[in-house]
What does this fold into?
Amino acid sequence: TFAMDRAGIVGADGPTHHGLLDIAYLRGYPNIVLMAPKDEAELRDMMLTAIEHPGPAGIRFPRGSGHGVDLSQNPKKLTIGKAEMLSEGDGQVALLAYGSMVQPAVEAARILASSGVKATVVNARFVKPLDIELITSLAQTHQNIVTIEEAYLAGGFGSAVLELLEAERLLDDVTLTRMGVSDEIVTHGDPKILLAKYGLDAEGIAAKVLSLTTSEAGAETARPRL
It folds into this structure.
């Protein structure tokens, strides 16, 4: 069991200490299970799941405090490769968030609702194995899927989803947008400021989704009538 703390943008430890590469360099290993919790309660569940799993497993979790969720229940084993549907939207967009990006995605959905966009929100939980059944269903029922991760985009969670959709021949059915950290060294700084810089806060996620839905509406309006 690999427990990877300080996953994502850690800020005060300097540019060499951001945990942005683990998804890319681990998910290629055959038979490994990789997961990330949405909160401290799910972290306990994942730790139990990893320890009792007969093969290799890795859990990434961020530096800092938890969200203050209820920890009175005993940890429970999770079904490996099963995501969690948090809210169902109207088919415009599905936010597929991994680990620390789940809470910002939930908040972004609230912002979007005030603009008339009812987003589906999914706690992906696993990058390997992915929830193939749920993700392929989203691709068949939504105009957009937006993957959100606190990691480098190259080889990351969004890349895994892209590979799945390509393998299932679904890329013509849905627009996939990957949100994460671009191909550059991330500087030292306050994590909140750095996350906002890369659009990985609630406001940034909502703005990206609105740009997608607005451009699609404009393209629809601009189409000539036959």
